[in-house]
């Protein structure tokens, strides 16, 4: 009889301990209801091994599984990492292209479109009074203004490239920091979970957050082995994290003077992985720096060179006001592209060198060359003879706006995808206050019942003692 009573006391004791642990886990869930990346936890209870004796079987109550279950969906977290990579790419590219868009300022009246209009208009004004000093000085001024806008556009776009390159360097440093942190968390998880006696849920949650941050910077693949170690590799299969070790990325200058991304092996060998990066902020910055902005610069250079060639061809064949009267004109522009186009300094210093007349006209009074140059505005000089200068530049500005819009649309879309996945993750892994409050009442009731069992067993023991 005494053995049975003491067995009941042991049942009550294990019940109290188990329900107390369940209450502790519930309290921890409630405390972390707003903690980013937290996965709610659950205590799994199981029946103790019963005791067999001659009179039958004696139950020994309940016990808590030492491994606390983490409510977690690996597939959702993989999708979240992938969405973070795509969102990072378009976000970085959009921010970069928005800077470029600011350079093509046509609203304030100081953009290249307005400068070209003033340039052509000044040639028209000169044709009305080819020997006028004011018209000549005005033309030189408007021409310098236009070339300055060409030069500034090139400098500003080059600066956007430099800023993107700086961001690439910063991202590589951040990636190296994150991979080291993931490797350290791998070690903590493995140490705690050795023997399957304990759970490293808090470190697993932290590791998932680090992986998401890493994915936002560069697209990676990851998988967890049987020992709990998370392996992380780049899209082309280069290892970034393996168990407790991490491999660094580094940068090196390419032929254009910008930084490519390299993977560094354990032996120090460098492999260029720039072209293999397909998502993440790194992709956005690299794509803007190496593809989109160079396209803008190439088209500006094309327009500037075509204008230099066309104007110089006409101007050099005209007549100036210098003595003798039939003095042939010189090149109006110097330079070869948008970065160095400039008005010939000889003309800047002597407005009489402007060749407003055709070589078949007399001077002063000849204006045929000024008319011919002004009419270049409407000639189909660009895009293989299918567009005017204005059409070509308007197309460029339109493409700049379209690229910014496309990046914004893609960013918004991927942000919505990430939000939906995060919402789904919360439904699976997030803490529900209603559910936790129900659990708290349930475990508290069980704890109270176990405490009453202790009181009852105590009374039974006292009765037994009194009988003896």
Descriptive key words:
468 residues, alpha+beta, 3 domains, three-stranded antiparallel sheet, 10 helices, 15 strands, 60% helix, 11% strand
Summarize the structure.
Helix content is 60%, strand content 11%.
What's the helix and strand layout?
Elements: H1 2-31, E1 41-42, E2 45-47, E3 51-53, E4 56-58, E5 62-64, E6 69-70, H2 74-103, H3 112-128, H4 133-193, H5 201-217, E7 220-224, E8 230-234, E9 239-242, E10 245-246, E11 249-253, E12 259-264, E13 270-272, H6 280-315, E14 333-334, E15 342-343, H7 345-349, H8 368-374, H9 389-429, H10 433-467
Antiparallel strand pairs: 1-6, 2-5, 3-4, 7-8, 8-9, 9-10, 11-12, 12-13, 14-15
Helix pairs in contact: 1-10, 2-4, 2-5, 2-6, 2-9, 3-4, 3-8, 4-5, 4-6, 6-8, 6-9
């Amino acid at each position: 009889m005494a053995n049975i009573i003491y067995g009941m006391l042991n049942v009550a004791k294990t019940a109290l301990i188990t329900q107390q642990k369940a209450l502790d886990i519930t309290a921890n869930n409630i405390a972390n209801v707003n903690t980013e990346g937290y996965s709610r936890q659950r205590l799994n209870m199981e029946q103790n091994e019963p005791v067999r004796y001659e009179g039958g079987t004696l139950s020994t109550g309940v016990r808590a599984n030492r491994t606390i279950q983490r409510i977690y969906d690996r597939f959702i977290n993989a999708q979240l990492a992938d969405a973070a990579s795509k969102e990072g790419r378009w976000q970085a590219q959009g921010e970069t292209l928005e800077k470029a868009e600011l350079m093509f300022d046509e609203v304030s009246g100081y953009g290249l479109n307005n400068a070209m209009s003033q340039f052509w208009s000044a040639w028209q004004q000169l044709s009305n009074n080819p020997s006028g000093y004011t018209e000549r000085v005005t033309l030189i001024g408007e021409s310098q203004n236009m070339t300055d806008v060409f030069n500034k556009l090139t400098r500003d776009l080059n600066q956007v490239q430099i800023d993107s390159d700086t961001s690439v360097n910063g991202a590589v440093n951040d990636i190296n920091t994150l991979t080291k942190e993931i490797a350290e968390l791998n070690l903590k998880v493995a140490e705690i979970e050795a023997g399957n006696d304990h759970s490293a849920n808090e470190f697993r949650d932290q590791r998932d957050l680090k992986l998401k941050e890493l994915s936002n910077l560069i697209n990676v693949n990851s998988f967890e082995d049987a020992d709990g170690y998370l392996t992380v590799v780049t899209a082309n299969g280069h290892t970034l994290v393996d168990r407790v070790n991490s491999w660094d990325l580094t940068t090196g200058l390419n032929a254009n003077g910008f930084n490519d991304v390299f993977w560094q092996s354990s032996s120090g060998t460098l492999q260029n992985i720039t072209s293999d990066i397909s998502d993440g902020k790194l992709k956005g910055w690299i794509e803007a720096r190496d593809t989109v902005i160079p396209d803008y610069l190439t088209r500006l250079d094309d327009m500037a060179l075509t204008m230099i060639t066309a104007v110089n061809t006409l101007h050099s064949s005209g007549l100036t006001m210098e003595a003798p009267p039939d003095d042939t004109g010189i090149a109006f522009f110097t330079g070869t592209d948008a970065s160095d186009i400039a008005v010939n300094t000889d003309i800047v210093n002597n407005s009489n060198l402007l060749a407003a007349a055709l070589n078949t006209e007399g001077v002063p009074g000849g204006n045929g060359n000024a008319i011919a140059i002004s009419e270049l505005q409407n000639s189909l000089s660009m895009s293989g003879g299918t567009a005017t200068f204005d059409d070509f530049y308007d197309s460029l500005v339109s493409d700049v706006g379209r690229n910014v819009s496309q990046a914004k649309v893609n960013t918004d879309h991927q942000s919505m995808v990430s939000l939906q996945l995060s919402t789904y993750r919360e439904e699976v892994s997030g803490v529900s206050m209603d559910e936790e409050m129900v659990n708290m009442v349930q475990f508290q009731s069980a704890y109270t019942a176990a405490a009453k069992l202790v009181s009852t067993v105590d009374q039974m023991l006292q009765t037994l003692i009194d009988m003896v």
